[in-house]
Amino acid sequence: MVFCISMSNQAKAQDGPFGIGISIGDYTGISYKYWLTPDYALNGVVNGTIREHGSNLYAHWDMLVHRHNMIEVDSGSIPLYYGFGFFARFHDGFDNDAGLRLPVGIEYLLEGDKLGVFIESAPTYQFTGNNFFTFQGAIGFRYYL
Fold first, then answer.
1. pLDDT digits over 116-130, tens only?
2. Which terminus in the chain has less CB density within 10 A, N or C?
3. Tens digit of pLDDT for each residue in 98-116?
4. In the chain, which ranges are E strands?
5. Phi and psi of 103, rounded to 5°?
6. Which of the four pLDDT bands, split at 50, 70 and 90, describes residue 93?
């Protein structure tokens, strides 16, 4: 089975559909994004710590919809995006967390470059342990391969 994805330069940061970089904020870590079509992408962050008295791993995965041409710029593009996702936080022992995310953000895709810079916020609902509602937020960049 062969899949073919056709993408315009507006929908990706120049060379390829896969981007990897850094996210800084409530979920600081390795950020990645894979464009499925010009309007849809998979997005996520992974981070972890290893310590003598306990380790943890955080990851989230989002399905995003992009709206292009809502913000006009002279160079590059700034799509607005929104979507839904899932997060999980694993700690030593059985004290793990999981929940839902509703990310909203913008990403500036520089023209003639392989770089995208983003800012996003995500209302989240943790449905394990102590159920609660909160907001996560981050800024970051991705280099597209």
1. 999 999 999 999 878
2. N
3. 999 999 999 999 987 789 9
4. 18-25, 29-35, 40-51, 54-67, 80-91, 97-101, 104-109, 115-126, 132-144
5. -70, 145
6. low
- Report CA torsion sign: 35, 26, 103, 77: negative
Q: Given pLDDT bands bounded at 50, 70 and 90, which one contains residue 96? A: confident
Helices (H), the chain: none
Rounded CA separation 99/109 (Å): 29
In residues, how long is the chain?
145
Tokens 């059985």 belong to residue: 94
